[in-house]
UniProtKB/TrEMBL annotation:
It comes from the Bacteria. Required for the insertion and/or proper folding and/or complex formation of integral membrane proteins into the membrane. Involved in integration of membrane proteins that insert both dependently and independently of the Sec translocase complex, as well as at least some lipoproteins. Aids folding of multispanning membrane proteins. Residues 34-64 are annotated as: Disordered. It is found in: Cell inner membrane; Cell membrane. The chain crosses the membrane at residues 12-29, 382-402, 505-527, 548-568. Interacts with the Sec translocase complex via SecD. Specifically interacts with transmembrane segments of nascent integral membrane proteins during membrane integration. Keywords: Cell membrane, Chaperone, Membrane, Protein transport, Transmembrane, Transmembrane helix, Transport. This is Membrane protein insertase YidC. Residues 382-582 form the Membrane insertase YidC/Oxa/ALB C-terminal domain. Its main location: membrane. It comes from Paralimibaculum aggregatum. It is a multi-pass membrane protein.
Length: 607
């Protein structure tokens, strides 16, 4: 009777612990949520201008202003249209701002009528996010009026910005200086900004060009610790990452301007800086080898924090009757790995590919991505590419797997001797442990060797999860039938009989609403266990019995591409283990083990 009570108590404890593990895992490692931005509104970050808060934004001195809808905000300034294969939008002639940009190749969702992703927004819109260029006088000099965020430029050349037709803006300060800004764009996401000044006075002038990216209000982020969202830069080979909380905790600006916060550093050789979201970023980059000052800044912007990343270049001296100019780059678009890798190589933008958050296991995540990308370029499907990657990983780990399964075969062959030891030692666990170790040593069996493949699988699993989570190439990538997005959870669910009886599943049940592939993963994990007889210890039996189903629910809300990998890995493991153990002369009775486990459960239920 006491045995029944103990088993019942153990079962209750196991159920409670399993539920705790599921809920705890879900809390610590939440699955990626659907992109929270409304249609057409996906934004990224900004930088601080030396001149302080943008005077074009009403309310910066007094408090918050009521935002306009986006179309009304755009209509406040004359505009030059942008049209490329990857981008659409416009540039505001006032200030020469790049503040209206859509990513033409990307939709906010998989719905047929979904809007394209919007990256940049003008001031007075709900989510202002824009890029500003200008000039400052060199320290200790004066040069009269200079162009800034609110300058009314004239369109000197070009009517529409395309890869084939750059535009040029011009502005005369009325005191002998003529400023021009030539804007060019390629077929992807890179703008080239050439700022020039013509000196028609009789005195030399020294002016310093600057640019900043500004974002008003703290944006919605994924809030997942394995993903960086916020300020990003590389300064002389050093990667810098500050999230929005870090920016708000920076030291107060020592000059006290706008009661803002400031962090600055001098870059001697190569660098860039900007803001990144999960899939998109906006980055300022000077020419390779160009020194500059990199500044992170937070200050008041229309009654809310304005986050800025600022690039200040050294002053340019312009003699009378001559012209000085400086060219810089602006990347505004999707973090396509092949695209940013090409920019890194061709334009010498140092470590530009590290704008993708590869994580601690970058030595695995980068090769995994390139393998998946190459497989996908050959077969045209990222889901099958994941399965091919699984085969490659299993091939690399095969020597360890072989050693592990050979050891398991030897241990299985020792089962009769183990049973005799158990009978001989009775309840003397210390003696049992000692004689077991002597038996393993005598038969040259290492029981720990079976753990090696599992230990190597942990970083591999995490690295693949990073690739699926952070790379845009996985976003909205289809596999087969109902799997239209490998970066999202399996959309099918047993709670609707896989779509036969659709109903709105309550939020508190969503963790249990798992689809076909998580269920297949649980089944393959369970079958893998059944290749071997169940452990003799009741506690171990209980743990092993619950493990597949705990993992099934733990991973059920994660990216389905990851679950496909795990399912494929389990399937290949079953085949490997079966073949290797048979080659060692061990009889593997999978069906018999399954029947035996059901008989035990039936017997326990009857008792």
């Amino acid at each position: 009777m006491m045995g029944d009570k103990d088993e019942t108590r153990n079962l209750i404890i196991a159920v409670a612990l399993s539920m705790l593990v599921i809920v705890g895992w879900y809390a610590l490692f939440p699955p990626p949520e659907p992109e929270p931005q409304p249609a057409g509104q996906v934004t990224a970050g900004g930088a601080g201008a030396p001149a302080g808060v943008d005077a074009a934004a009403p309310g910066t001195a007094g408090g918050p202003v009521v935002p306009l809808d986006r179309s009304a905000a755009l209509s406040r300034a004359e505009r030059i249209e942008i049209e490329t294969p990857a981008l659409s939008g416009s540039i505001a002639v006032r200030g020469g701002r790049v503040d209206d940009l859509d990513l033409s190749k990307y939709k906010v969702s998989l719905e047929p009528d979904a809007a394209t992703v919007t990256l940049l927004n003008p001031t007075r819109s709900p989510n202002p996010y824009f890029v500003v260029y200008g000039w400052l006088p060199a320290v200790g000099t004066a040069a009269g009026p200079l162009p800034g965020p609110t300058t009314d430029w004239l369109v000197e050349e070009g009517e529409r910005l395309t890869p084939e037709s750059p535009v040029t803006l011009a502005w005369d300060n009325g005191e002998g200086l003529i400023f021009r800004r030539r804007i060019a764009v390629d077929e992807d996401y890179m703008f080239t900004m050439t700022q020039s000044v013509e000196n028609t006075t009789e005195a030399e002038v020294a002016l310093a060009p600057y640019a900043y990216i500004a974002r008003r209000g703290e944006p919605d982020t994924q809030g997942f610790f394995i993903l960086h969202e916020g300020a990003l830069g590389v300064f002389d080979g050093e990667l810098s990452e500050l999230d929005y909380d870090d920016l708000l905790e920076m030291p107060v600006d020592p000059l006290g301007r706008e009661s803002g916060r400031l962090q600055a550093r001098q870059v001697e050789q190569n660098g860039w800086l900007g803001f990144t979201d999960k899939y998109w970023m906006t980055v300022l980059a000077p020419a390779a080898g160009q020194p500059f000052s990199a500044v992170y800044r937070v200050q008041n912007g229309a009654g809310r924090p304005e986050f800025r990343t600022e690039m200040r270049l050294p002053a340019v001296s312009v003699a009378p009757g001559t012209r000085g100019e400086v060219s810089t780059r602006l990347f505004a678009g999707a973090k396509e790995v092949t695209t940013i890798s090409a920019y890194e190589e061709e334009l010498k933008i140092d470590k530009f590919v590290d704008s993708v958050d590869w994580g601690w296991f970058y030595f695995l995540t980068k090769p995994f991505f390139w393998m998946l990308h190459w497989f996908s370029s050959v077969i045209g499907n990222m889901g099958w590419s994941i399965i091919l990657l699984t085969l490659c990983v299993k091939a690399v780990l095969f020597p360890l797997a072989y050693k592990s399964y050979v050891s398991m075969s030897k241990m299985k062959a020792l089962q009769p001797q183990m049973e005799k030891l158990k009978e001989r030692c009775g309840d003397d666990k210390q003696r049992m442990q000692k004689e077991m170790m002597e038996l393993y040593k005598r038969e040259k069996v290492n029981p720990a060797s079976g753990c090696l493949p599992i230990l190597f699988q942990i970083p591999i699993f995490f690295a693949l999860y990073k690739v699926l989570f952070v790379t845009i190439e996985m976003r909205h990538a289809p596999f087969i039938l109902w799997i239209r997005d490998l970066s999202a959870p399996d959309p099918s669910t047993w709670m609707t009989l896989f779509g036969v009886f659709p109903w709105d599943i309550p939020a508190f049940l969503s963790i249990f609403s798992i689809g076909v592939f998580p269920i297949l993963m649980g089944i393959t994990m369970w079958l893998q266990q059944k290749l071997n007889p169940a452990p003799t210890d009741p506690t171990q039996q209980m743990i092993f019995a619950w493990m597949p189903w705990v993992f099934m629910f733990m991973l059920g809300q994660f990216a389905v591409g990851l679950v496909i990998y795990w399912t494929a890995n389990n399937t290949i493991t079953i085949i490997q283990q079966y073949v290797i153990m048979r080659s060692q002369g061990v009889q593997v009775d999978l069906l018999g083990n399954i029947k035996q486990s059901f008989k035990k459960k039936r017997k326990q239920t009857q008792e």
